[in-house]
Amino acid sequence: MRSGVRAQVPVLNVGDADAAGRFYALFGYTGQRGEDGRSCLRCGDLTLLIVEGTPAPATLYLHVDDVAATTARLVAAGHPVENAPGGECRTADPDGNTILFARPPGVPAPKVEPDGRPVPVRRAAQVAARRDGAPGHCQIGGPRGEPCTEPAEVKLADSWGDTAWGCLTHADETLVNARGAFLATEDGTGLAAYLAARQVRPETAAVPG
What we know:
This protein is an alpha+beta fold. The protein is built from five helices and ten strands. Strands 4-7-6-5 form a four-stranded mixed sheet, with helices on one face. The protein is elongated and about 60 Å long.
């Protein structure tokens, strides 16, 4: 029979549970405030309990799948991130709690090109550069709606069929913040080409008996 601790749930005392919930959503936590005023946030199998009351200093150390993407989300939401020794990053939640995050031990960093761009983004830009049809300028623009005059280098899409061309900087930002967005490589092997190949050809059509 197993004995000992089966799970552990960090508890944070915060001044504003809603603000704390929005902050931890940047790490992938979701949840709602219960009738007792506590918020039970979950991320996969992990649980974080938020209790609204008098804040007490605390530190959380989180292992994240993508340090760069997590950092980008935090910075875009107005939470500065500092680099700490050992490849860790440091930020603070709205109540001043220290949040350290890093890749899980043994997980290699994602491969990037010398200019810092992830390989898939750079390759998509190279493919797009060899094709016609891209607009002259980035269609995504800045966070306040300001136009972007940089050339359109990458095409993005989502499962609802919406598409947009963007410069590398705004394409990176969109891929981080719009979770349903993905690179549209236009390599000729998409669904349309697949379905077209399955169409019945006259010479192979069955002749009715």
